[in-house]
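Data deposition worksheet. Section B asks for the primary sequence of the deposited chain exactly as it was used as input, without tags or linkers unless they were present during the calculation. Section C holds the resulting structure in token form. Section D is free text for depositor observations; keep each observation to a single sentence. Incomplete worksheets are returned to the depositor.
Section A, Depositor: J.P.
Section B:
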Amino acid sequence: MSVFLIAFRNLTREKGRLLITAGGVAFSVILILVLLGLYFGWQTQMTRFLGNIDTDFWVGQKGSRDMSHTVSILPASMELKLKELDGVSSVTPFIGRQASFNIAGKEAHFFLIGMDPNGAIKPYRIIEGKEIPGNSEIIIDQTFAKTEKLTIGDELTINSVKMKVAGISSGGNLLVYSYAFTNANDAKKILDSSQFVNYYLVKTHDKEKAEKAISAAFPNLGIIEKQDFLSNNTKIITETFLPIIGVLLTIAVFIGIAVIGLTIFTATVEKSREFGVLKAIGYKGSQLYAIALIQAVLSGIIGFVVGLALIPLIVKLAEAATSAFIYEVDVPKVLLVLAAVFAMSTIASLIPLKRIISIDPAEVFKA
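Section C:
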């Protein structure tokens, strides 16, 4: 009889034990997939809007580096001077900062951004309503709309300025706040920034020449390449969430190893007589270990399938419970989790190895 068939029979004979093992692995798989989905979902979300902006440089006040931790205030008159520099093809003022206001007696806030007439600054994706807000109109993120129970046509009063919700967008949820968009004139009015901007978005036809020209003409400005600016804005995730998620992922992996390993160990101890018989009739230690390995791997695969099947339901429930739950997992990451399950199962199969190798066939025939 093949070792695979023996392992399969041993595994399926005890339905309760199989259920416990597969359930433990399924729990580990769910936890790993949820944590991976949260991490990559937030990492992608953090740069969706900013990554959608077509620019070569973010030019701001020296020392500024992102939208969350630093402040940049520049004179609006600087735009014309920047346009005249060598290597520069276009300059777009960027106006935006957090705005707080009341909704139904409760404080709410978002990061309000002024859209330019040329369309360089725009929401990541419109899911309902207008793509370009008119006068006294605003586009809000879907997570903000869901949290505050807002729909198209509702009115917000921000810094004494009444704004009508004209559109709802996606890709603008940044955990601690979300992006909202209005036209540049309304943004200046609400944020009281007619004489100032926060950044200049500079497109070039010669990046090296443009950077040198800007540095020479404005030595007190900070010039940040687009990719560096995106990286700076994701640090809020990589510096805070990543270590926590790493710890939880490690715990999930050890849970899987422990559950599979202890179950297989218990099964091995309880079936010492069967292993002894197999050893007595000529099965080698390596073959007996192969049986334990196959049992562990099969348990892992069953648990993986169950966990994967439950993920859509869990994600749906989590998204209904909180708008801050953003989940994104692609096929390569699912395959990575499958590889982790194989690794967990293999490691777990080593736990009863010593017991298997040391089984004495003579014990089988005692009493």
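Section D:
Residues 3-46+239-364 form one domain.
The longest strand covers residues 106-115.
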